[in-house]
């Protein structure tokens, strides 16, 4: 099964040309043996260290709470400011629907009266995303294998091919958007 | 220096009476040897595992992004649903001012046009809070030593005495509000 059809996706191809990835992409097109996107969730991700947290809102008013985690290799690289990330680095991004917590709100209203505090907590999982650094196997996507899992199942090839295109603007930070939280 | 004046604080005393902590509080008042609140940040907290993330907003429109972390003992207890938490468990809560990320917004607008995505990331640290389980030394505050650090410095005694009072409503979950994120 052909899995590495990166340059078959117009958006990725266009961006690849812009930033000079054409040569690498063309080279990899001839190899069909290895999936260039993750098909399995990296083991132990829930024990990874904290890189940062974040939040994403949409125009429809929905909101996601997010945690970005890293394995030891990734965390070490962050702390040392080492770029590019070394092979073996894994970054995990866990995304939850944000829920209001009326129970917390009641407690906080008593503890901090008049401050108008509202608390929001993680609800159901939206998806989990991963980046695994392997500069040889994933050369066509900046040395990173991308993965996107919903209910434990990997996204289809079309979805997976959008990952790298979206991460290209972070090229100066080795395609990783998230910064280490203080 | 007298540090365990818990029943000298009206709010705490009132709540202690309500939930039946009077006897313990009175007993501990006679011991002045050990601080009953944390005066040092637990070492290695930034390597703790992720319990959950959360967000807090105030009536003035400000927003905090938060991460709750646990040491191995705390994480194990969470996963096994073990209550009360065993001695040695540590829970850390890291609080940051939430910042808008126009850079991320631009990227997301290109990747997901028309969705109106806005991204928020951790800004400066607001404070860090800790709970350290030691059922003997901190019996007067539910077995937990509380700590609150701003710019690395512990809060004063008056602030620290508010911690337990605010956590009393979570008595059925061993005074810990945060639930493990899926």
How is this structure best summarized?
In chain A, 26% of the residues lie in helices and 29% in strands.
Largest sheet of chain A: 6 strands, antiparallel
- Through-space gap between termini of chain A: 44 Å
Rg calc of chain A = 19 Å
List the helices and strands of chain A in order: HHEEHEHEEEH
Q: Into which percentage range does the β-strand content of chain A fall? A: 25-35%
Largest contact between chains = A-B, 48 and 49 residues
Number of helices of chain A: 5
Average pLDDT figure of chain A: 85
Question: Judging from the principal axes of the Cα atoms, what is the shape of chain A?
Answer: globular
**Total number of beta strands of chain A:** 6
